[in-house]
Amino acid sequence: MKKITLLLLFFVFALANNLVAQTKVSGIVLDKDNQPIPFANVVFKGSNTGIVSNEDGRFYLESPNNYTALLVSSAGFSDKEVTLEKAVNYDFKIVLSEPQALNEVVIFTGKTSKKNNPALDILRKIWERKRKNGLYLFNQYQMKKYEKVEFDMNTIDSAFMKNKLFKGMEFIFNHVDTSDVTGKTYLPIFISESLYDVYGDNILKKTKEKIEANKTSGFNGNQQIQAFVKDLYSDYNIYDNHLKFFDKSFTSPLSKTGIDVYNYVLKDSAFIDKKWCYNIVFYPRRKNELTFKGDFWVNDSTFAIKKINMAVTKSANINWVKDIYIEQEFDVQNDSVFLLTRDYMMSDFALNKKEKSKGVYGKRTSLYKDHKFNIPKPESFYKPEVNYIEDTEIYAKTDEFWEENRFENLNKDEKGIYKMLDTLQNVKRFKQLYSLASILGSGYWEMGNFDFGPIFSTFGYNDVEGLRIRAGGRTYFGRNDPWRLQGYTAYGFSDNKFKYGISGKWLLNKKNRLIISGGNRRDVEQIGASLTTTNDILGRSFASSAFFTTGSNGKLTNINLSNIAIEMEPAKNFNVLVGLSYRTLESASPTFSLDYYTTLPSATNPEGVVKSDVRQSEANIQFEFTPNRKTIGYGVERTEVDSPFSRFFVNFSYGLKGVFNSDFAYEKIQLLYKQPIIIGPLGRSNVIIETGKTFGTIPLGLMSVIPGNQTYFTIENTFSNLNFYEFITDQYTTFQWNHDFGGRLFARIPVMRKLNWREFIGVRGVYGTISDANRAINASNQPYNAPENVYWEYNAGIGNIFKVFRIDFSWRGSYLNAPDANKFAVKGSFGFYF
What we know:
Blueprint: H1 2-13, E1 23-30, E2 41-44, E3 50-52, E4 58-63, E5 69-73, E6 80-83, E7 88-95, H2 118-129, E8 140-154, H3 158-161, E9 177-178, E10 185-201, E11 206-217, H4 223-232, E12 242-245, E13 248-251, H5 258-261, E14 262-272, E15 275-284, E16 292-299, E17 305-312, E18 321-332, E19 338-350, E20 359-373, H6 399-405, H7 412-424, H8 428-442, E21 445-447, E22 450-452, E23 459-462, E24 466-475, E25 483-492, E26 497-509, E27 514-525, H9 542-545, E28 557-571, E29 574-587, E30 596-599, E31 609-611, E32 614-625, E33 631-632, E34 639-640, E35 647-655, E36 666-678, E37 684-695, E38 704-705, E39 728-729, E40 731-740, H10 750-753, E41 758-769, H11 772-776, E42 791-801, E43 805-812, E44 824-830
Parallel strand pairs: 1-7
Antiparallel strand pairs: 1-4, 2-3, 2-5, 5-6, 8-10, 8-20, 9-10, 10-11, 12-13, 14-15, 15-16, 16-17, 17-18, 18-19, 19-20, 21-22, 22-24, 23-24, 24-25, 25-26, 26-27, 27-28, 28-29, 29-32, 30-31, 32-35, 33-34, 35-36, 36-37, 37-40, 38-39, 40-41, 41-42, 42-43, 43-44
Helix pairs in contact: 1-8
């Protein structure tokens, strides 16, 4: 979600240099009936520079050298040589014909054979040797890495330049360039260069990168964009079976499962850097799958890749991305060692995939050199730092330093990008656009060192408050603030009451992230909205502030919560928190009761003694482990990189009876485990397990309510067919499994293929009980029902409807005869996803 939001920001304020390429050609490859020929091989004659046409037969090819002819070939057609009469040739129509003579041998047509195919024989050799090539040959390795990342607004035309949006910023169009991959014009809006020292140990299976220098222009210092860039360009290895881009798993053309999804054709062989290599072209067997088209050159003895070019097919079921182009080059270090020296990736982000639609290029170029091998480091060297603290000197290197240390020189126009972008940030019009984009991206309106918001929480509605308005804000001096204060106030027009919340936190030690925090909140809350709870002062319960609900949502509670806590991170992604809290709970509605017996009914006192509010002091200690989580920044609040990671959470709570007139003594344990599972081309599953138990006697306000969902929207960790307070427990275990097929099933159905819809299935269940003691003190009007026979429901859904909408259908699997049982539910959700 963060990534899409930031791309939309680029569209809003994307506001090139002119590389001199000697030969440019674009066009379309057709058959004799003027039908496009997809995946045709187009090469400059006398070179290894080429490309594979897309599914519509279109191609663009560019080289800094002078060429006078193209060679065009495709399985099932005769090869054709096309003369280039000038250096720049656009909109070529190249017609290929079927073989006319018997001596014109064509081995493969359409889908290539899985038998007697020499390309597959070579592919099997690659599989056998992939763990014996390159860096895998050595126990340890280290090298220097230079990385350049650039974002550019593309398809710039005269109408776009005259748009009133750019009034006062017209000078930026002096920096328009042409892409050597797509042939489109583009305008740089962000550029960053970095130098790293890279270390790896194949025995320990550990790697480490140490940044030496960074130079950034454009949106320098913006934490969200920094996180976006880091997450967008995750590392990959072309030898892996699946390559992950934009949270999706693409089948690699070198994968052992590639035979089932790709066609392979052995096209050529030649010497490259004095090594005899085979050229293999690959293209997908089916449309709408997460695959590539392209070609690679592989050595005939080591079966190591020398060069590979690949592009995501246009029909791949991925939103907002029109093209992904990848190019890797490997240099021969000696007779048997092929090492990656250049890695280039370009993505074309766009609102749609039409040929002339405007979008944003995201480009990363990585260069490697100065390799050293078998220099062991202690295991402690690879241990990740809990809180990496940036050295400001990294970002203050001089122009002279960069001239001396970057691996390849910037041309004069690339150097001009820095100056143009730095100048742009002082333009009033650009500042206005940047402010608007920042509001859309973060949800806060920046006002000096104070941010107003989040603006998306301004309005809500429930049966108790009626229409609810909310206003708040936070201190913000920069992305690495050591302290932060934030708060809000709200007003309900039906109960005519003001609510508020205020909290603060302070980072005492940056190394182990020692943080103290505290706050107070008085508000209306749906306390049955989540099983695994925390004492988050500024948490917002969607269940009590949604605009529309199914049935009444009047079972709300007035809560007055205060807490203090101290937390630290003794090891990377392992967090420990100790806290104290005090809360009072009472019903917010005359139709809902939290009453409980302080004295049970007896012969001498048949009505017993009833109390309506709860006063409770509580101490807790919680542990959270999030392996593989990535974060940006080192201040009191960090930004998580938007990538899936596991989560283990354990919380122990102790009720402190008598402390500040607290009512109950108890012990409670809660555990949560969340695991994303990527299953190659079959999509991604999410498994969530929650379990908990309370030891002691407690009233309704402190019980574990199984979270229902009476909104019209899908909410994680809730049950779509349950109403609020339908099941109540003091011990519980839940299981939830959801799977996203990513459109793989619909891609096999011709009628559905073009819709690019995606399939979801899931099942969730809960088992829970209530002790006799807790049943005995219940004096509320809420019946105690526990899912002792296991409640479960299952769902199926369709996502990616109009690219932003998902609809889920849910069926109750048990307790079908319960009063007011909701046997079928329809929920929806909105979101921008890749």
